[in-house]
Amino acid sequence: MDFSGNQLRAARALLGLDQDAFAEAVGVSINTVRTMEACGAEPIGGFVSTRNRVRVALEGMGIEFLNDGSPGVWLRKRRRAAVTPATVPTKVARKKTRQRKRPARTT
What is the pTM of this model? Predict the structure, then answer.
C-alpha cells in the first residue's frame, strides 16, 4: 500500500515522535525520513523495502492508513507493543553509522 509524505508526518505527530526518534525506532536514517516527508501529498518513492519497513513499523505502533476517498491516518486506541529495530523485519541487520561532525564555518 502506498502512503504519502503528509500521512507519514501526521502519523509521526500522532505518536508524538520527532524525526530523530522515529528514524531510530524504525532503523532508517533521519535523511530518509526527511526525504519521505518532503514528498507532501504525493506517494512516497524510493526503495520498496524501505517504504514497507516504515509502514510496518507505523502499523505496529498503532497507526492505520486511510486511503479510501480522502487519505489520512488514524491512531488505534489499543496500541500494540512498541516497535524497535529488532522487531522490524529486515534481511540484513543494519549497522549504525557514525555521523560526521562538520567543522564550524568561518565567515
Answer: 0.65
